[in-house]
Amino acid sequence: MTGSVPAPAGVDVPEALVDAMRSWRRDFHRHPELGFAVDATAAKVAGLLQDFGVDDVHTGIGGTGVVGVIRRGDAGSTPSIGLRADMDALPISEANTFDHRSQVDGRFHGCGHDGHTAMLLGAAQLLASDHHFAGTVVLIFQPNEENGRGAQAMIADGLFKRFPVDAVFGLHNMPGLAVGHFETRVGSMMSSEDLFEIVIRGRGGHASMPEHHIDPVIVAAQIINGLQTIVSRSVPSSEIAVVSVTEVLTDGARNIVPSTVTIRGDCRSFTEATRATIERRMGEIAAGVAAAHGAQAEVSYTSEFVPLVNTEAESAAAVAAARAVVGADRVNPACALWAASEDFARMLAEVPGCYINLGNGVDGPCGKSLHNPNYDFNDDAAALGVAYWVQLVHDLLPIAS
Ligand SMILES: [Zn+2]
Ligand SMILES: [Zn+2]
Q1: Entry pTM
Q2: Distance, CA 341 to ligand 2 centroid (Å)?
């Protein structure tokens, strides 16, 4: 499944730890939990952190988030970094039939958060007995990444006030990228996700007498067409954005012109300015088209995920650490923009940092796209993820010579 995997250089990841991570990961995979309700996963994480001898373990942060703290040296005068993993699964049924498949119908670790949690636990175990750094490592295990709610819940619960960090780092597995490879980029890397709903109110009635009605279906059709001009005419040609109408609902019937049509959809963009342009133009188009037909349109527009933006110095540190692990030619420091969204972006909106992708392989379940019912995290990549975390700690929290 993996081809040739380079041995992590610099950081020794013992075979026993690789075996332990596989076993933790497959246990999480068999027992997936959703959203904030990751109680058993969080309890297992907290118990393992305590077993490893991590200095402090805090539970219940932002609901079910867990934070482990490892201190070396004087906390007042040494730097501090946060390493973040996510613990939640997806509300879909797994199609795989292997031994460690989900034991819960309708729940599945289809994004590899089981692997992310296992890798950060692996790093915690190594760092708990590691004295080759000076500073504070804050291990952040967040709930509810998939709905874009867990990071903000932990931040609102004082994550960065109680556990201040100079920088924060995230890691995600990437199917389609060969094992032994990393990729990231400086600046915008992943998109925002906004949801919208436009309720169009007209005046319904008998389908045979349209002259007496204000048909909201016609208004909806013109608004949907109008929305296509936001990306093509209003967003700068140097920017990337998506506006998708995904649902159209009416309260009519085959022989009844409806009174109300509801349009729903999803927008993506990579900068706050483009996000704001989409929201503004959507409001103008909906109101203007509705007014032209004597109808009313109400727009609600909500931000689910913010754009993920990596800062320059921390991206350089992430690339250097990944290169130390797999070699310079296996780290892409300028990967393509990715129009998916990631809750870690909320942490990057508070603290400098970098998010990096780790190759999950190209074949079999590990090469299937994230959220595919046949996907699986690649246990053969876990040692590289752990080596990256530990390398990053050694690089950013050096012992003064
Ligand atoms: Zn996901
Ligand atoms: Zn994910």
Answers
A1: 0.89
A2: 9
